[in-house]
Amino acid sequence: MRYTVILEQEPDGGYVATVPALPGCITQGATRDEVLKNIREAADLYIRRLYRLRRPPIPAEAGREYVELKIGAR
Question: Got the DSSP string for 6-70?
Answer without folding.
Answer: EEEE-TTS-EEEE-TTSTT-EEEESSHHHHHHHHHHHHHHHHHHHHHTT-PSPP---S-------
